[in-house]
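Structure tokens please, single chain.
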Amino acid sequence: MSLEVEVVTTSSLGDRTYLAHDGSLAIVVDPQRDVDRVVELAGRLGVKITHVAETHLHNDYVSGGLALARLTGAAYVVAGADDVTFERLSVTDGDAIVVSDRMRLSVLATPGHTFHHVSYVLQSAEGPLGVFTGGSLLFGTTGRTDLLGKRHASTLTRQQHLSVRRLADLLPDGAEVWPTHGFGSFCSAMQSDAPSSTIGQEKTANPALRLEADDFVSQMLAGLDAYPAYYAHMGARNAAGADLIDLTPTRIADPVELRDRIEAHEWVVDLRSRKAFAHRHLVGTLSFGLDGPMATWLGWMAPAGAPVVLLGESAEQVAQAQRELARIGIDRPAAAATGTPEQWANDESDLAALPVATFTDLAAARAGCPPHGLPPAEVVLDVRLVEEWRQGHLEGAVHVPLPELPQRATELAAGVVWVHCQSGYRASIAAGVLTAAGHRTVLVDDDFGIARDSGLTVLVERE
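Here you go.
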């Protein structure tokens, strides 16, 4: 049997885990915290996991590597230069990990995303098949280089350029590229829609392989935007090692407890779609729908250790959210409730709706003719990130990036706030924050790409 590589995707965080096997034995690369998915896959394939390998100490999620290794009895492979508190199979540049007579991994030092980052070349009896690149060479880009602090960013960016070129020089054009990041993760310098890639394809498209070092460094550093605040805690958590997560059902709260928690300014989170939230919701709750990157934005905005309460239409919704939050270290919600807003409320006064508009409606409102039922647009708020704002924003809009809004909502002028983002997801979160701060709010639930065609003036700071 030829070697096979299976992909376990975590689309909510924009990452991938890999299981490579020869039909009998397997190695897992960069597993997420919820390792039951990998264990189930290995069982379905009928393979034994002998090695669990990390390309680096991750910043965007709590690794399941140590727990998976202990659960399966596998060797836990981590770069020897990383300072960790657990036993591991220490590897360095040039080492080989023999899994079977048909499968082995060659270790290559590829610093840049982190100082001690390594990549693993998957070797069969016929030669290299591909490379697990973690946060080094990604599809059409590389892993970002500023997660260890701005003071290291320039040095790491130069190392990233050298590392990617080393991979391209050592591997044949047909070798597959298997990155961990790059599918929505903020660990990626840019995002890609490509489902797969090879070394040869990257040579024609990847800036790290097309630009000289100085130009690559300048372009990389100029394009880096903010990243989630919880990243600051992930590296240390992974250096310490994480145990298996507890995904047992969360305690159910009644309407009185929910009201008490809302009045205590806890993070009571509505997991339904933003359309359902706008139609009717519990006053004081925030919209973090499971139809978007809920964990990323909630983990970014909620203070570390803050109690989180989950409201879902079903126990399955709550369980899904609980799993996603555990991946970034929010292990146990304080409480949960399922059903409808009417079931979560003490009485009708606990319920509210949110006005929803399009960019066409906004254009009409700014012209002094708001559509029937909508208030005037006295303040237009853009909650996208800085780079998005620079690439195009509405004339006269106020800019407050969503992660800063809880602390800056009081800065906004009095009046009705029409809030937008790129698609509507973040604007829905912002609407809840604004309402809680006492603002009358309209949610612009629309694609920013059509704003100019809707009659609005879009200004560009960076082409």
